[in-house]
Specification:
The protein is of the alpha+beta class and 345 residues long. The protein has 3 domains: 43-110, Beta Barrel (Thrombin, subunit H); 133-216, Beta Barrel (Thrombin, subunit H), CATH 2.40.10; 224-344, Pdz3 Domain. It contains 7 helices and 20 strands. The strands form 3 sheets. Strands 13, 14, 15, 16, 17, 18, 19 and 20 form an 8-stranded antiparallel β-sheet that branches.
Length: 345
């Protein structure tokens, strides 16, 4: 078939139009790509070597403290004595199980990396929305760092594990989760850690569950409190507040007056360590001693104020010295210190 000049010109124009359309395509670096890139270095592989020739267990973990604390599921570490952790840079380190609690199916593994590790902050879960996008990352069937995406299908679910333990307050998601994802992060579209993947519904498709970050934060705060780690009490009573959907959106608010700290004060930093939740507050006091004075930066009626908290060795409230205006308009970066002796055992 011969093309007339007019038809040939039309086809050329159409081809040019198609090429331009491809060239002007949407930005491929979307929110999911950004969230994965920003969190990947905080996600680890955990391998539990079983005795008696039984099959090894491979799961996932998330670094929650830069000094080497990793949260995962209890069923990932089991009763295994030989735990190995592979960091994002492929470094393999032996791990010690510091805490294991079946009724929450949570465990904490510690590694000695000899360097500061990138930790993820536990996000607030009071504002979870059914239908919002979520991302799961883990190592299903040994396929390391597999990313899947879905939505929150429901919140506040309850399931019974094969062990008989009942987990409640769970996030239900249709993100693809399989054996090997256990202990890995469930992220929102901003890359915030909203849960730890724990289980899937056997025989079903698109029904999986994650322990919400609020539960994780409470368990960590209990087992790694300032008192249990360093033998000090700060005496602060607080509650978590969600300020916004994005950005600097999570704060601890003082609920009872303590010295010159007043109810309503929002804690920004303790000893130059940025504070977002209760676990941050506890670990800010690791390595401190009874009687030591610690600076606490708060926002009071829109103004930053510095108070000095005197730590106590006994049960009860600490004392707070006179508050003074802060010279800095922004929170100071988190201080890096070695793991206290209580965590080295």
């Amino acid at each position: 078939m011969r093309l007339t000049p007019s038809l040939g010109s039309a086809l050329v124009a159409a081809l040019v139009c198609v090429q331009l359309s491809f060239a002007d395509g949407v930005d491929r670096k979307n929110a999911t790509v950004t969230a994965v890139a920003n969190t990947k270095n905080s996600i680890v592989t955990i391998k539990t070597i079983k005795a008696n020739g039984t099959k090894d267990v491979v799961g996932t973990g998330v670094i929650v403290d830069e000094r080497g604390l990793i949260i995962t599921n209890k069923h990932v570490v089991g009763t295994g004595r030989n735990i190995f952790v592979c960091l994002a840079d492929k470094t393999e380190l032996p791990g010690d199980v510091l805490m294991s609690e079946g009724r929450f199916d949570l465990a904490v593994v510690r590694v000695k990396a000899g360097k500061t590790l990138p930790a993820l902050c536990l996000a607030p879960t009071q504002d979870l929305m059914v239908g919002e996008d979520v991302i799961a990352i883990g190592h299903p069937y040994g396929y390391v760092n597999t990313v899947s995406r879905g939505i929150i299908s429901a919140v506040d679910r309850e399931i019974t594990l094969p062990t008989g333990d009942i987990l409640n307050g769970l996030i239900q998601t249709d993100a693809s989760i399989n054996p090997g994802n256990s202990g890995g992060p469930l992220l929102n579209i901003n890359g915030e850690l909203i849960g730890i993947n724990v289980a899937l519904r056997e025989g079903a498709h698109g029904i999986a569950f994650a322990i919400n970050a609020g539960t994780v934060e409470k368990v960590l705060s209990k087992h790694f409190s300032a008192f249990k780690v360093s033998g000090v009490f700060h005496g602060l009573k607080t509650e978590e507040k969600v300020l916004a959907q994005t950005g600097d959106r999570q704060r601890l608010e003082v609920v009872e007056n303590a010295g010159s700290l007043k109810a309503g004060d929002q804690i920004v930093a303790v000893a130059n360590k940025t504070i977002a939740n209760g676990f941050d507050l506890e670990r800010a006091f690791w390595g401190k001693k009874p009687g030591e004075n610690v600076d606490v930066k708060v926002v009071r009626q829109g103004r930053e104020v510095i108070a000095t908290l005197t730590l106590s060795a006994g049960q009860g409230a600490g004392t707070v010295a006179a508050a003074t205006p802060s010279n800095s308009a922004q929170p100071q970066p988190a201080a890096t210190s070695s793991v206290p002796a209580a965590l080295r055992r």
